[in-house]
Amino acid sequence: MFSKETIQKFQNTSTPFYYYDIELLRKTLEALKKESDKYGYVVHYAMKANANDEILRVIKSFGLGADCVSGNEIKKASEHEFEHIFFAGVGKSDEEINTALDRNITCFNCESLQEIEVIDELAKKKNKIAQIAFRINPNVNAHTHKYITTGLEENKFGINLWELEDVVMRTQQLKNIKIVGIHFHIGSQITDLSAFKSLCMKVNEIQNWFASHNVPLEIINVGGGLGVDYHEPNKNPIPDFESFFKLFKDFLEIRPNQKVHFEIGRAIVAQCGSLISKVLYVKKGVSTSFVILDAGMTELIRPALYQSYHKIENLTPSPLPRERGDSQQAGGVRYDVVGPICESSDCFGKAMMLPETKRGDLVAIRTTGAYGEVMASQYNLREKVKAVYSE
Ligand SMILES: *Cc1c(COP(=O)(O)O)cnc(C)c1O
Question: Which of 3, 32, 94, 312 has its CA 20 to 30 A from that of 221?
Fold first, then answer.
C-alpha cells in the first residue's frame, strides 16, 4: 500500500525504477530476529535474493550472517562486514575458492567430493584449514515450482545419501579440511510448512548416522526457502516467522554444542520491493487488451522464468466517471500486462483485473524485492534502472 505522498514522489521520478520500503524491511527483520532469537538460531541472509547496497546495510545492522553463492558475493559480504560468511554453490571456481580462503570465511557448503579435494589442495597452498559442511540432498519434495526445487535426487544440487559414507570417509583423510557441519536447502518459495517438517525428520536420521560414525558436527544448516504471499502483499507483508522457527524447534533434534543455521533470502526482502512503471500504450488485441509498460522482463524476469504471479496495481486514481471500454466488467477490465521487450514471454500477467487503464498511468508490480533487481539484464541494450528508497 502506498501513501498519497509516495505516489506523488513516484509521479516525479522517471520510470521504471525499483522502490524499496525500508521501514517494512526493518519490521520484517525485527520479526525475524524476535522469533529466531527465541531458540538461539543463527540466520544468514541469502545475498543472491537482493545485493543492493542500501538493503545490505539495513540487513547487516540486524546482525545476520551472509550466505554467498559466488566470489563477488563474498567480496561484497566482507565489504559490508558481515560476520559469518557461508559459501554455497554447485560450481565454485578455483578463483572463487581462493577468494573465500583469503577472507577466512566461516564455512564452505560442499556439493561433491571432487570439490572438497580442490578446496583441500588450494587451502594447502595457502597453509590454511578450510571449514566445510556437506551439502546433502535429502530427497525431500518442497512442493514448489520445478525450477526452484533443489532437494530431490534428480536435481543437480548436493551429495546424495547413497554416496555420503564414501564422501565422508575420504574427506576425513584430507589434511587441510575440517568437517564442521551439514547443510540442506530444499527449494524456494515454500508455503507448505510440512516440507520443512519432512526435512527435519531426514536431518534427524542423518545426524544419527554421523553420531554413530563419530563425526562431530557443530553446524546444522537447514537452508532457506520460506515463501511469501505474492497474492496478498498488503494483507501479509511479513512472513509467518513464528510458525516457521517453531516447527524446527519442535521437530529438529539438536545435540549439545550444535547451532542451527538458516539461510533466508526471499522471506526477508521480497515484500519490501516493488517495480514501478508507467503505461506506454493500451492496445486492443483480438480477444484481449494489452497494457504495455515501460518495464519489462529485463527488470523482472520471474514471470517469464518461473511463470510466477505478481500482484499488479494501477496507482493512478481514475477521474470518475470514466469512459467505459467494451470489455469492462464490474470493478475493472481484464488486461494482459506486458513489457516492451521483443519476446512473447515478456508478460507480467495474463487477464489481470485492473481499473480501466490509460497511457501515462503509474503501475506497481508488487513483491519484487527478491530475485528482481539482482536478475536484471541489459537485453535489448536496455539501461540499468535505478532504485528509490522510502527513506
Ligand atoms: C537461494 C538459496 C537460499 C535462499 O533461498 P530463499 O528461498 O530465497 O530463502 C538459501 N540457501 C541456498 C544454498 C540457496 O541457494
Answer: 94
* Residues 294-310 as b or e (16 or more Cβ within 10 Å = b): bbbbbbbbbbbebebeb
Asked if residues 43 and 82 have their Cβ atoms less than 8 Å apart, the reply is no
Helix (H) or strand (E) holding 163: helix 161-172
Alpha carbon distance 65, 71 (integer Å): 16
Relative to the CA of 190, which ligand 1 atom is closest?
Answer: 7
Question: Cβ(111) to ligand 1 under 6 A?
Answer: no
The DSSP secondary-structure symbol of 251 reads: H
Quick: pLDDT tens for 53-76: 999 999 999 999 999 999 999 999
Cell reading at 193: 510448512
AA letter at 14: S
Q: What is the distance between the alpha carbons of residues 213 and 352, in angstroms, rounded to a whole number?
A: 56
What tens digit of pLDDT does each residue of 338-359 get? Answer: 999 988 899 999 999 999 999 9
Length of the chain: 391
Q: Is the CB of 265 under 6 A from ligand 1?
A: yes
Nearest ligand 1 atom to the CA of 265 is 8
Domains and CATH numbers, the chain: 22-269 (3.20.20.10), 271-389 (2.40.37.10)
Atom of ligand 1 nearest to the CA of 263: 10
H/E element holding 231? none
Q: How far apart are alpha carbons 312 and 314 in whole angstroms?
A: 7
Give the three cell numbers for residue 37: 532469537
Q: How far apart are CA 283 and CA 35, in angstroms?
A: 48
pTM above 0.85, yes or no: yes
Ligand 1 center to 224 CA (angstroms): 5
